[in-house]
Amino acid sequence: MRSTITDIIKKSPFGPIQAHMIVSKASVEELINFLQFAIDLNWDEAVQSRKLISELENQADALKAETRGLLTKSIFLAVPREDILDLIKLADDIPNTVKDISGLMIGRQMEIPKQIASSFLLFAKEAAAITDAAAEAVDYIDELFQFSFGGNAAIKMQQLIEKLNSLENKNDHSEITLRAELFAIEKDFPPINIVFLYDIINKIGELSDRAEQVGHRISLIASR
Amino acid sequence: MEVIILYGPYLLISGCVFGFFMAWGIGANDVANAMGPSVGAKALTLSQAILVACIFEFAGAYLAGGEVTSTIRKGIIDPALLADSPELLVFGMMSSLLAAGVWLIVASFKGWPVSTTHSIVGAIVGFAAVGISADSVNWPKVGSIASSWVVSPLLAGIISFLIFKSVQNLILNTKNPFDNAKKYVPGYIFLVGFIISMVTMLKGLKHVGLTLNFQESFTYSVLVGIGIALIGSLVLRRVENTYEQRGDVVFDGVEKVFGVLMVFTACAMAFAHGSNDVANAVGPLAAIVNVVQSGGEVTSHSTMPWWILLLGGVGIVSGLAMLGYRVIETVGKNITELTPSRGFAAVLAAAATVVLGSGTGLPLSTTHTLVGAVLGVGLARGISAIDLGVVGKIIISWLITLPVGAGLSILFFFSLKGVFS
């Protein structure tokens, strides 16, 4: 049975975005496992892990489609539609990039030199922490909305964004250290492998960037 | 005249059956829109909502429903013009009840946002204009009713926008929303009590034998408002700033405070709905009963028998008990996005507008008014996503309901006339 009142109030598009962010978080966490397997040259486990990453990416795609489906033309939203579309687009880059990284590493059976393994893992773990913080901010949209984007909720959101920024800063330094370590030993390895290794580092850096951009988009939504 | 004397009891009984059927339909379907938001916001459980609806729908119909009933009964058409052929008024009102009832069943089956009020007004205008004569319709009155259908959703939207803006500024956007909620919510409760009793005392209580002037009404309404606000404050004292799971929704302290407020607005909404919509069933029936009981005399000054309102009230309550509770449940389940802090603003604005309409004798659409109120909260950024497509559907349903209601009632009118002559 339908009624006019139920027809007029639609589901919030933030629901699927929050679910999407949880999936992204899980995907980046799985990437850490994957990288550990790669460092240990445990390719059987790595393939299993890669399967999980693929599944998570599929889930994320479905949630992205669901979000867009809620944004039909006749919908009037509390925040600009473009902001929501941008948000989901940025967020969806996270599981995609994770899938790219794992695909590339499996395909080339890439070895990570023992000398840089710990810096490499640290760098990736920091990217996961940034995704975590971004997911926390996305999850906080509900409170922000409940308190009409003001009061304590807005202050708390600002704090979450600041935390995100400081994590990103730390991550930038880790990237510099990691690149320097790799530069110091690169002559001892086949050049093509090294080129791809730099590519992987770039992609992990991209993960952190995307997560940070998600946070910034949220703070923009919050400040309107 | 002969027809009335010959078939009087039959006409009376079938009139009662049709009127009861219409009231039953209102209870089964229409009440759900009025009560749904409160159930959806988890301010009331389903059984509490039904209890509130039973009591306050009836109270609204009895205490504040007189003006709208008299508009439906004798405001749209001039009964004096029918003094020579009273049976036409009886047939016409029976046709109108049937036409509106049939159209509402079709529309609810299809899920169209059709209004009970629009159907019955369209039906009455239809049989009068075509079946009797275009002059028998009080066109200026019909014009003001039709414009009230545009004005009431707009007014409700503006009121709900302002109410929710005030909630944002006084409570939600502050450092300490919970404390401010406890501080200001009794004020909103006062407003609920004041508005409802003010309109009722000013306009509705004449037929109960109580005539109050503006000054008296104002004083008593302030007292009623304060009394209700005090009751609210006592309840609020027990609300703690902790999280609570209600169904699949987690409520924090602020929403729990607004939940208390929403119990009061739900009562107001049921009262407002009763005061406006019961007339759709009771008005035509009252016209029939008057003619038949006076043996064919069309009297516009006669009083309305008390049992007609009772019949309407019982009809609504039985519709509610037999089918309405399921509709309320469905509506409630589907609008969990409307939390108490939002829902109360929409419901209060709608209730105030509808009660105002009842006081001035204008039959409004409760549902459309509520839609306007929900849009108002949405424009104040209170609801994350609202579908403006519904507004288009409502406008189309206006354009369709009037001719269809009129056409059906003309059809039934000529059939009845043919059968009895």
Summarize the structure in words.
The complex is a heterodimer of chains A (224) and B (421). Chain A is mainly alpha-helical and 224 residues long. Chain A has one domain: Methane Monooxygenase Hydroxylase, Chain G, domain 1 (Up-down Bundle), CATH 1.20.58.220. Chain A is built from eight helices and one strand, in the order αααβααααα. Chain A is elongated. Chain B is mostly helical and 421 residues long. Chain B has one domain (2-420). Helices cover 79% and strands 2% of the residues of chain B. Chain B is elongated and about 75 Å long. The model of chain B has no long low-confidence stretch (mean pLDDT 85). The chains are: A mainly alpha (224), B mainly alpha (421). The A-B interface holds A 1-14, 70, 72, 74-79, 145-152 and B 32-33, 36-37, 108, 111, 113, 168, 172-177, 252, 254-255, 326-327, 330-331, 334-335, 337-339, 341, 367-368, 370-371, 374-375, 378-379, 381-390, 392-394.
Give the overall silhouette of chain B: elongated
Count of domain modules of chain A: 1
- Which stretches of chain A are poorly predicted, pLDDT < 50 over at least 5 residues? none
Helical fraction of chain A equals: over 70%
Overall pLDDT metric of chain B = 85
Roughly what percent helix of chain B? over 70%
Which residues of chain B form runs of ≥5 with pLDDT under 50? none
What's the pLDDT, averaged over the residues of chain A? 91
Can you tell me the CATH topology of chain A?
Methane Monooxygenase Hydroxylase, Chain G, domain 1
If strands are numbered along the chain, what order do they take across the biggest sheet of chain B?
1-2
Number of strands of chain A: 1
- Supply the CATH superfamily name of chain A: Phosphate transport system protein phou homolog 2, domain 2
